[in-house]
Every structure is written in C-alpha cells, then in structure tokens.
Design goal:
Bound molecules: 1,4-dihydronicotinamide adenine dinucleotide, magnesium ion
Largest sheet: 10 strands, mixed
Strand content: 15-25%
Number of strands: 32
Number of helices: 30
C-alpha cells in the first residue's frame, strides 16, 4: 500500500521492456549470418570478407554481414537490369499490387521490424514502433497508388532504369522505404546498399520481397561499407544514384558520377533553424524542441539544431527547457517508456563529444541535466549550448547528436538572416501565434521544408529534400516521383555534332581580292552595323569586358558580321553579383508582372523581326530556317509568359491537422550556357523559363551567333526588364564556364554543350552542390519545337518547398 502511494508521489515509471524474442528467433533462423539478396536469392558464396554488427545499447554482436565486393555489386546490377523490362511490362496495376502487398506485409510484421530496428540502431522502441514502421507502411500504400496512376499522372515519361540507392543509419527502414517505394512505383529496378551499422531491417525487407513473390531481381540488397557504396556509384550499368547521407560523401558521389550521364538525387546534411518568436506558446515550443532535437537522439538530418529565439522570451524559454530536460528519460532503447535511446556507434559518440569539446574551447556554455547517463553503451545526454557565436563550430557544423544551440534575435529580419546563415537548407520550423508573421518568414527561409508550429513531421504525400548544400531532388509526394522517371524524348542519348563558330573567308582563295574595299563590300551585305563591338550586359548596363579584348564573329559565308566582347573570369563574377542583387526583388514580384515583361519582350522582339531574321540567316546561311527560328522564339516567349502565373504548386493532403503547401520556388541565381545551334531560339528557350519563375540569370550565349544575344540588349531596355535579371557575358566558353560552374554564389547551372564539357561542369558543381542540368551533346534535340519548351524546363528552373501549416481541427 505504501509502495503504491510512493509511486503516485514520484510518478516514476518502472522499466517496461519490449520483448526481443521475435527478433532473436528471426536472427537465429539465419544463424545470425547474412549474405546479399541478389536476383531473389540469398547469395553468400565465396570466401568474401564479413563484418560484425553490434547492438549499440549493449555492445553485443548480434549478426555477421557480408562486405559487398565490386563483383557482388556487379551481380546485383546485372540482376536488376535483367528484371527491369519485365517489371516495366507488368504495367501500372501489376506494380501497384506488389507495392500494396509489401505495405500489408510490413504491417503484419510491424512488431518484429520495430524491435529489430531498435536493437540495430539504438532508437527508442516507442519511436520505431509508433513512427518509423507506420510511416514505412504508409509510404508503400501511398506509392502503390502512384504506381496505379502512373500513365495518367506522367504521360510521355518512362522509368530511368536501374537505380543504385545508398542510405544512412539514422532511419534505416524509413530511408529504405523513401528510396524503394517511388523507384518501384515508376517501373525501375534497384540495388540498395544499407548503412554498415544498420542493415538488418533491410535484410528483413528482402525476406518480405520474397514473401510477396516480387519478381526476382526487382529489389536487390547488397551490404557493406562505403567501399561497397562507391562500387555501386561507379558501376556503368546504373542509370541513377539516389543517396542520403553526409554532404562530404554527397560531394564525392557528385564528382564520381560527373560525365557518366547517371541521374543523381542527394539528400544531405542540415543545420536547421528552429525559430521562436516572442508571441509563441512557449509550452508548445518546449515540446517542439524535444521533438526537434531529442527525437532519435538528434540523429536526424533535419533536426532543429539551432534554436533562434526572440530576445524578450529567451530567458524564460531556457528555464523551461532545462526543466523539461530534467524529466527526459534516457536508457534501454527497448524500454517502452524511454524518450531517448543510444547513439548508433562508438565512432558517432566520439564525434559528438569532440564537437562539443571544440564548442567549449570556443566559449560555449554547455548545459546537461543533473541525472546521470548510463556508462555501458554509447549514450549521450540531451545538451543545450548557449553563448555560441553564429560562426562558431556548434552553430555551423552538423553534429548529428542530441546537442542544440540557443541564440537570440531581435527582429524578424534578423531571424531570417540568422536562419539562412548556414551552407545547408534542409528544413526550418517557425513558432508564432501570428499567422501573418509565419507566412511572411516561410518563403524567406532557404530550406526545402518549413514547419509552422510543428516540427519533424513527415508524410508520404509530401516531398522532402534540400536547398543549397543539403542536396537536390525530393522524396515523397508527386515532386519525388520526377526523380525516377524521364521524358521519353531523352531516351536517345547519342551525341550530336556541335556546330563550331564560322570561320573567316580565306580571301586569297575565295575571291582573290583582299582589298579593303572588297571586304567592306562583303560586310555591307550583313545589314547590322560593324563599326561597333557589342559589349557585355551586366546589371542592366552595357559594360566593356574587363580584359578589353574582343572576338570577331563571322557569317556562314565567312564575312565578318561584327565583334563581341571577350568576357573573362572577372566579368563572370561581376555578372553573378548583379544577378544576386536583383534576385530577391525579381523573385518576389508577382507572377503576373513577370508575365507582362515576357510578353513585352516578345512584342519588342517582333518589332525588330526583320533585323533579327537577317542576322540569323547570315549566321546560319539558311534564310528559311531563320524565319522559322524567329517565329519560334517569339512564340516561346509567349509560352513562358503564359506559364509564369500557371506554374503552380500543390496542396498535399497529409494526414495531420494541417495542410502542406508544395510551393514552386525559383532556384536563385542561375548560370546558363546556351546551345551553340539556334543562337536566338536557344537563348530564349533557356532564359525565358528561368526568369518566368523568378530566377535571375547569367547567360553565356552561343559562340556561333553571340550577336543574336547582344542585339537583344535594346529589346531588354525597351521592355521594363529590371537591371540584373538577365546578364549576358559573351566570349570563349573555356575562359568562362569553369568560373561559373565553380562559383559559390551561383545556385544552379544549365549547360548545353558536348559530353566532355558537360562532365566538367558537373564535376565543378560539387563545390557548393549547385544543381546542374547538362545536355551531354544533345542540345539540338532538346530544343526541338515540341520538347524545347514547357514543363521539363520549368521543373529544372524551380525547386519545391513544402510548408506545413496548421489547418482545421
Ligand atoms: P556517410 O555519409 O559516410 O554514410 C552514408 C552512407 O553512404 C552509408 O551507407 C555509407 O556506407 C555510404 N558511403 C560512405 N562513403 C561512400 C562513398 N564514398 N561512396 C558511396 N557510398 C558511401 O555518413 P557516416 O560516415 O555514417 O556519418 C558521418 C556524418 O555524416 C555524421 O556524423 C552526420 O553528421 C552525417 N550524416 C548525415 C546524414 C543525413 O541524413 N544528413 C546521414 C548520415 C550521416
Ligand atoms: Mg562515412
């Protein structure tokens, strides 16, 4: 009796351990030794290396896995390739049935999956049971639907083919679902490599694939570490790599795949802000912080690891947080009443300890609750750091542990500046009772997901993914499916011959008359004036090139048409600066206003149609084509003017008390290296979609016909185009493209040119992980009248931001 009274007094929880019997029995069934799952069978032949995996809470070895070799990877890729056409031929309904069956089986084996996940990763059973596994099932159900709807939803598209997928250890099964469900729904087959610390639920998933009778080779699982991952990335039979993990490895993968033609989606690190305004409900905020940084021990790529709090409430919030931290329970992950489990590995624990120690030396005050942390196993307590400078290690580096920094701001604009003071851009949460303030700040924070008065909520219907060095591509929702399909018109990958700039007529042989008078007579046939060297166009002004050099431009007949400035690195940098300073005001204009300017550009171009047509004819030597190109250019400006206010987002029906707005936002400052062929249409086809949706542009026009771009300056100037929205730097590509591709303040780059140069662009983009779209020498086909405009260009010009807003009951 007195004991019961005591319990009521202290309200202490007793231990409530989840039984591991099911999981132990499952491991025993495999004698705790696993091979790879390739072509529908367990493959464990040969002497290959093995490694042990441990339960991080007990440090006990629970299984032995194969270290996948390049040969194992090759076998898996072959199996996936062999299965792909059959899987595609099965059709939408056939694939939908399999995805549905997988979802059902996951639900049936939910308990085993949850226990195994917690044993392998160290996350609390409460989270694996109530969050990870239900979300995994939801992901397969949702994507069974997309499989069924593929033909209606994505006409003119086909699967990418064989996909290589590499996932991290923080949400082993959930990341598997985010990768596998959309890939299968869209008709791809795949090879997945789980993280070396946490492969067990992927192997159980392989068993489920067998149980539902999934055709052999559609899903292949190869275990191993980063070397196995690198072999998968490097295998020539893989059409796409989908990766989730650290930004460092993402960068390695970008460089390794450059020039291979492999599609790439990267979900990388984060340092997400958690913004608390003075009017917010602080008790909800405290629970929000718990979910933001102590959920999954803080091993969450979108963890709210930077609390930015408005000055007036900072002290109160800090006190409330400390009080709440005292009541958090950390311990055996299989105890149903713990809030926090164990760090995934001793190496990760060491990394966390090292970063916190570094923060201390930089002056941070580090606060941890008074209760003691278990000594056995890789436990780390919840940790709150104050007195951290915005540039300090703890404020900048992704810690991937239960460590949060708290910093203060005064005004909303200061909050936005601090939120964006990071190289990452994965997520943010905004806390305020003022909806106007929340929706004012949400578009200004550069991140792929914004949670208003909530945090770390996920759903299969909503896309998830990064801005900036948090990577590109989305997972979930309609926006995630584009990563796994491509337009049918891109299937032909053969390289075209790139037109070269025209050469001067060799006078001695052509006419035998090299007199100045003869030369002048030739020139006069090309109507535009030749006594002028066209300048660059930067920040709304015609600018002389930094190097004061120019390049002659010849017609198809070898006659000199004029000269253009020869831009260099400095000119490119100036143009980027101009585009940057124009960026936010252009992006925040109304779409209607941007449309009006595009219509006006078309109108003013049409006024000068004769001049442009003659110029095009002189460059190509084909006057008839020139008329067609001129007409198509005007029509294309109309097309993007039309799209400007119709390239809309969606509202996702996520199953919470909110709506999720999938907003299409511009990428920012875009570089464009225009196709050599079609000097006018090529320029228009690239620049118009980019500016229609709010990007500002640094364009390097065709080297064959740069005068078609420089002739446009006057069109720009008469069309109300604000300075800096379009900047043009003429000259030789090799002198400028590397600067543009490596520039840290360029957010994305389109490159229309040969395969080899495309590869260099992709490689150089890894510096700031800018998004690239390169043509691999297929510029002419991409600009064809039917496909050279429209949604694919607009998709490449935008990124989706999901904003979760409370709504309804
Ligand atoms: P990691 O990025 O090295 O590992 C992620 C996956 O990539 C694993 O499956 C690994 O085997 C594989 N991998 C490693 N090197 C590879 C290569 N060269 N080519 C292909 N695949 C490769 O992450 P790690 O080392 O486990 O953790 C280090 C830090 O990275 C963490 O402390 C954390 O800060 C960050 N991280 C971030 C994640 C995120 O989702 N944002 C996930 C995991 C780690
Ligand atoms: Mg690593």
């Amino acid at each position: 009796m007195s004991r019961v009274a005591e319990v009521f007094e202290s309200l202490e929880y007793g231990p409530a351990p989840e039984s591991t019997d099911l999981a132990e029995a499952w491991l025993d069934r495999y004698q705790r030794s696993f091979g790879h799952f390739i072509g529908g069978i367990w493959s464990d032949e040969g002497e290959g290396d093995r490694f042990d995996v441990a339960n991080p809470a007990t440090a006990q070895v629970i299984a032995s896995l194969r270290q996948g070799s390049a040969g194992d990877v090759a076998k898996a890729v072959d199996a996936a390739r062999e299965a792909q056409s059959g899987w595609w031929a099965l059709g939408p309904h056939g694939r939908a049935r399999y995805l549905y069956a997988i979802a059902r089986h996951i639900q049936k084996r939910a308990r085993l999956l949850a226990v195994l996940e917690s044993m392998d990763n160290g996350k609390p059973i409460r989270e694996s049971r109530d969050l990870d596994v239900p979300l995994v099932a939801r992901h397969f159900y949702h994507h069974a639907g997309w499989a069924q709807l593929m033909e209606d939803a994505f006409p003119g598209h086909e699967p990418v083919g064989v996909v290589g997928q590499i996932i991290p250890w923080n949400f082993p099964l959930l990341m598997l679902a985010w990768k596998i469900a959309p890939a299968l729904a869209m008709g791809n087959t795949l090879v997945l490599k789980p993280a070396e610390f946490t492969s067990l639920t992927a192997l159980l998933f392989a068993e489920i694939c067998g149980d539902v009778g999934l055709p052999a080779g559609v899903v292949n699982i190869v275990t191993g570490d980063g070397d196995t991952g690198a072999a998968l990335v490097g295998h020539p039979g893989v059409d796409k790599i989908a990766f989730t993990g650290s930004t460092d490895v993402g960068r390695i993968i970008r460089e390794a795949t450059a020039g291979s033609g492999k599609r790439l989606s990267l979900e990388l690190g984060g340092k997400s802000p958690f913004i608390v305004f003075g009017d917010s409900d602080l008790d909800s905020v405290v629970e929000g912080v718990v979910d933001a940084i102590w959920f999954n021990q803080g091993e969450v790529c979108c963890a709210g690891s930077r609390i930015l709090v408005q000055e007036g409430v900072a002290e109160t919030l800090e006190l409330k947080l400390r009080a709440r931290m005292e009541t958090l329970r950390l311990g055996d992950p299989l105890d149903k009443s713990v809030d926090m489990g164990v760090i995934v590995s001793p190496a990760q624990l060491e990394r966390i300890e090292g970063l916190v120690a570094q923060g201390r030396t930089e002056g941070a005050e580090v606060w941890q609750p008074s209760w003691s942390t278990p000594r056995e196993g890789s436990f780390y307590p919840p940790t709150l750091c104050t007195n951290v400078a915005p540039s300090g290690t703890l404020a900048q580096v992704e810690i991937f542990g239960p460590v949060v920094v708290l910093m203060t701001f005064r005004t909303p604009s200061e909050a936005v500046a601090m939120a964006n003071d990071t190289r990452y851009g994965l997520a943010a949460s905004i806390w305020t009772e003022n909806i106007n303030l929340a929706l004012d700040v949400a578009p200004k924070v550069k991140a792929g997901t914004i949670w208003v008065n909530c945090t770390n909520v996920f759903d299969a219907a909503s896309g998830f993914g990064g801005y900036r060095e948090s990577g590109y591509g989305r997972e979930g929702g309609e926006e995630g499916l584009w990563e796994y399909i491509r337009p049918v018109w891109q299937a032909d990958a053969s390289e075209e011959v790139e037109p070269e700039p025209n050469r001067p007529r060799s006078r001695s042989r052509a006419s035998g008359d090299a007199s100045p008078a003869a030369a002048a007579a030739e020139i006069s046939t090309a109507v535009p004036p030749i006594d002028r060297t066209a300048k660059l166009y930067i920040g709304g002004k015609q600018a002389r090139p930094d190097g004061a050099h120019s390049l002659p431009v010849y017609g198809a007949d070898g006659a000199l048409l004029g000269e253009v400035g020869r831009g260099n690195r400095k000119d490119v940098r100036d143009a980027v600066e101009a585009a940057r300073s124009a960026q936010s005001s252009w992006a925040t204009r109304t779409a209607h206003n941007r449309a009006q300017i595009l219509y006006y550009l078309a109108e003013n171009l049409l006024v000068r149609a004769d001049e442009f047509t003659r110029r095009l004819g002189a460059v190509s030597g084909r006057p008839d084509d020139a008329v067609a190109e001129m007409d198509a250019s005007v029509a294309r400006l109309f097309t993007y003017a039309a799209w400007a206010d119709k390239w809309e987002g969606r509202v996702h029906h996520t199953p919470f008390r909110n709506v999720t707005f999938a907003m299409k936002e511009p990428i920012g400052v875009m570089g464009v290296v225009c196709p050599a062929a079609h000097p006018l249409l090529g320029f228009v086809s690239c620049v118009a979609p980019l500016i229609a949706v709010g990007n500002t542009v640094v364009a390097i026009p065709s080297e064959v016909g740069p005068l078609l771009a420089t002739d446009l300056y006057q069109v720009f100037e008469t069309s109300d185009l604000p300075p800096g929205v379009i900047n043009v730097v003429t000259g030789a590509r090799p002198e400028m493209v590397p600067t543009l591709a490596a520039h840290d303040d360029v957010d994305g780059l389109w490159f229309f040119g040969p395969r080899e140069a495309s590869a260099e662009v992709e490689r150089a983009s890894a510096g700031n992980m800018k998004r690239t779209w390169v043509s691999y020498g297929q510029a002419r086909r991409w600009l064809d009248s039917t496909q050279g405009q429209g949604e694919e260009f607009l998709r490449q010009a935008t990124q989706v931001k999901n904003i979760w807003v409370p709504y309804g009951e």
